Amino acid sequence: WFSVKRQHALMTIADSLYYTKFKLYCKPGMAGGRNCYADEHYMPTLFNMMDPNGIANWSVTHVDWSEGKWHPKAYRAQDVTHGLLKNITSIDVSHHVTSDSKKVVTQNPCLWNGVKKPCYLFARKFYPESMNNLMRYFCYRNMCTFGRTLDLLTSWWI
């Protein structure tokens, strides 16, 4: 889920302090407020601590956590509409709620080189059955805007 520049790759390789703490402390489940996953939370935390100005302050992947479950909402074929895609691509404010009991909400504009832009380049999760509907929006006259990428992505779907 991560793409890093050389500087951050070297930072990750050199780190043993924070990784060890994450490995020991981060366990799935709600006991003791330790509901985290080392593989998902370690790198964003490390980069925010070590190089906060060198990272984006939001994810470039839209994920709908509104159902409050362990996994995000998964879109079925009937969910994939022009309205859904327009909504996702028009979001230009990053909305974050902390996972602790305080549920602190922060909202920040998504900025690219100081200019407010849409936040998301990608979206997840889509059931395989939704592929034809997605193709309808991303292909024109049998020409897909992302070539063979779709073939590669289907292995990442549910």
From TrEMBL:
A cellular component annotation (GO) from this entry: membrane
Membrane topology: Single-pass type II membrane protein
Keyword Glycosyltransferase: yes
Localization: Membrane
Major site of localization recorded for this protein: membrane
Keywords (A to Z) from UniProt: Glycoprotein, Glycosyltransferase, Membrane, Transferase
Record carries keyword NAD: no
GO molecular function: glycosyltransferase activity
Pfam families in alphabetical order: Branch
InterPro entries: BC10-like, Glyco_trans_14
PANTHER family tied to this protein: CORE-2/I-BRANCHING BETA-1,6-N-ACETYLGLUCOSAMINYLTRANSFERASE FAMILY PROTEIN-RELATED (PTHR31042), CORE-2_I-BRANCHING BETA-16-N-ACETYLGLUCOSAMINYLTRANSFERASE FAMILY PROTEIN (PTHR31042:SF154)
Protein name stated in the entry: Uncharacterized protein
